Each structure stands twice: as C-alpha cells, then as structure tokens.
Amino acid sequence: MTSSPDRVDSREALASFVRSLHRDHADNAASWENADLGDFLEALAAWIDDAGGWHRNAGRELPVDGDWAFFARALSAAAVYE
Question: Which of 1, 43, 64, 68 is an S-S bond match for 34, by CB 3.0 to 4.6 Å?
C-alpha cells in the first residue's frame, strides 16, 4: 500500500502521500474497499465523522489544531483544478 499517513508533516508530504494513494489505486484498485470516487468520498466522510472514535481506539488524541479548512479547500479544488 502507500506510505504511512503518520509521516505526513508538511504540505509537500501530503501531496506526496496523495500521489502514493493514486499510484496504489492505479495498481491495486481491486483490493480497495472503496475503489470508485463516490464510495471513496462517502467512506472519507464517514471516517471523518468517526475520527474521534478511531483515535480513542488507537490510544491517540484527535488533533484539534489541524487545518481542516485547508484539506476541505484541497478536496474542493481538485474537482476543477487542471
């Protein structure tokens, strides 16, 4: 699969991680539970809703200082960016 999301510590690392996801999808889409865009976005929203539970179960705290708006802008822009 892709590199660890825990190693993403910069904008450049996030871009690299997303490219890694893209390559993994291109090479292994059949192994993805949510291989099409609609299913992927729905699963993304569901995970964001449950992120507090995931972090608790993993023994971590949900980051309160994350730039949620940056990620939302990136997702929105990808729909029209060339």
Answer: 43
